[in-house]
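Input:
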Amino acid sequence: MTSSNKAAAHHAPDVKMYFIIFGALLVLTAATVLVSYLELPKMLGITIGLMIATVKASLVAAFFMHLKGERTLIYGFLGLTVFFMAVLFLLPITDAVETEKNRQPMAVGSVLPQAAGEAHHEEAATPAAHEAPAETKKPAKSKKPAGAKKSAH
Amino acid sequence: MTHHDSHHGHGPDDFISKYVFSVDHKVIGLQYLITSLLFLLFGFILIMVLRWQLAYPDQPIPFIGNLILGSTGGVVTPELYNQLGAMHGTIMIFLGVVPLGVAAFGNYVLPLQIGAPDMAFPRLNMMSYWIYLPGGLLMLSSFIMPGGAAQSGWTSYPPLSIINPGQTVWLLAMVLIITSSLLGSINFLVTTLNMRAEGMSLMRMPIFVWAQFVTAVLLLLAFPPLEAASILQLMDRVAGTSFYLPAGLVVNGEALKVSGGGQPLLWQHLFWFLAHPEVYVLILPAMGICAEIIANNTRKPLFGYKELVGSMMFIGGMSFVVWAHHMFLSGMSASLGNFFLVTTMIISVPSVAVLTCLVYSLKGGSIRFTTAMLFALAFLPMFGIGGLTGLPLGITVTDIYLHDTYYVIGHFHYVVVTGSIIALMAGVYHWFPKWFGRKMSEGLGKLHFWTTIVCMNGIFFPMFITGLAGQQRRLYDPTAQLHNLTTQPLNVVSSVFAWLLFLAQLPFIWNFFRSIWHGEKVGDNPWEATTLEWACPSPPPHGNFEKPPKVYRGPYEYNVGKKAAWVPQHVAEVKA
Amino acid sequence: MSATATQALGPSKTTTGIPNGKLGVWLFLTSEVMLFATLFTSYIVLRMSAPSWPRGWEELNVPLAALNTVILITSSVTVVLAYAAACERDKAKFNAYLWITILLACAFLVVKSFEYGHKFTHHHFPSTSIFFAVYFTTTGLHGLHVILGIAYFAWLSYWAKDNWDHELFVGRVEYGGLYWHFVDIVWIFLFPALYLL
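Output:
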């Protein structure tokens, strides 16, 4: 019996606070859905959405998971995890961004055997919506023969 | 209620609970020991077959060729070659060295060294083993499945790994193996933090425990990304998704009917995010084992205890930010390459620090050349070679030439084989008396040591030469590349030493099993060691210690001051 | 020491003072963070490298998912109220809140199955496009975690019958709650990431 009393004493659950946080979470959920209906531009939408989600997650973590007032060791492991998580996010994304910047359009037509003969007359196969690589400084939709894409840089 | 505080708790009675589904960390440790050694043997056999093909391309294997490869007349086909290569790597790393270094040694020795009666979660511990074994058997079973075993390298790069046979079973087995590892790492961390005997502060823990602790952190945080990445690859193979498959892929002249939009490089990032910390998982327990054996057999404290702890923690942290040095040639930008170059150079510093501390620990020591000590001593220069040869690989410009050559194979085998495996063998000789209450034969041990160390160097040193000469990895027939013809004799040398290395293990296998029943009997502490695992009977009973030990000093009080020649951690008063 | 004896170490008996189970669950959650972080990283990399990517609401049912978000958040509240009831030794309240939690979790899965069913009827499968591959895999893995949570709570309610006074009882309620809150947090990020962007 004693250790369960100790557990009770350790966290002394504050039921009133739980309901307050519940209310906050519902409000924030409504907010994030409403913001999405504004159909904001992507970057702004992502930032706001992430911010609201982070606040919600922090409330759950701090109050429902009793992180507020938890031992330093737990914070230590969580901090370490957040750091490695950030690394896991940042570096592959950086690579993807850099690779996109350096991407050369491919001549898809030349890859399939039956189309080999038409390869030289196919235009660059980049989808229209894709932005042109930064170096070429040409409008995205311009037609260029595949052979001329051997850019020197 | 079944729980109580007595350390002589009522152990299980029946055979199944005692030896099969045991929750005792010592039994589980031995289960891992035998299983991982068997997997190591299997992985070794695979490479011996592969090395025949490398030495004598397209020639049938003599004597046993028709027995093992009847359908091809004893010749290793390209498909089999790829399977042998992929499975050798996978088995050695995930089923061999890690379970041996972490689960076998860690499970048995760690609770004893901190004065604990068992692990924090004994039933979870039992589950870890019983998930590892089916995972391992599933992995092996892929050889007899249609299409054969995985054959896209242990690195399983897509798109090849998506279209090649054998990969699905590999992925499923990896999910099991990773789960086992995660459960184990949680157990190790909670045990180390929470179950230390009174007086066992963190800075009084043996270096072996610190090494296992950092290793467990790496396993905990680095393995899940590979688990997720494997699930994505499984989805690609089984559910027709295209996480790793770009649009426009053509296989055997036909366009691949997938939605496309995937990124092969995504797999590489996620795989190496695990696989780089994984190599530190391979080496840290080895360093820990050598630290224990060196301290014990120099009869003096280790040099730089705090520096060793700090270096291992620094290695652990840095290991998460160096992974793309395995991807220097994947087309990434120079700036990203530079980032990883810098972090890779930085991580070499604490590795050297650890080596330096261990080497300096010999200075002024009164060295006892037991078999364990011979192996531990050999670790030092061998790891030095392994580490040094990593530097040109970690530097982008030189890696352009060396990537995917035999130089890489030479480098990592020096670290893992002449490094980790040598240290693990040292650990077997060192802790065998604790496990079985008997010593292994020193004569056979020394024979084992000298033949092994010579053969290992004979296999891997030539690889630096063939690699620099331009021989590429994973080539079914090295002579197909004309520039390899000059160095082909070195491939024969490596192969011959590999087969001799196998023969060199026979005295060890004989010694190991014979000594379990007929070895020289020993008491609690045959090595006159100071750490807590030697403060209980050999082997320890259920619950380990008669009463919980109290710790009064650090782990390596050998010949400190003018007191007794050596003072165990748990002894209160010092007798002059 | 028997297996349960080593797990019976209460706060006063572990070197750090944190119960074994609590430390173990938090460490488990850190590994789960890395698991889901990998899925988010993959989503971001794939989306950034794609020539085009639909806005979430163009392909997915936002109202249903918003409902599911509310369901999951509510279940998070009820599970922590169950914990509070366990601390206060109120058996009736504990059972009530625990079962509401389980029912809400099942409701989440029911709504999810409607979503999935609707997609399948319209021939949207994981293999259809990279968008749906990401959608099905991330929500599927999350759903698997929900199922495991339900299993744990069902077991807990069964075990609680005879073990209300067990030394580890309150702890096990707390640890299940920690896991469940983590599952909730993942959805808190997943919902806007997939549906609202």
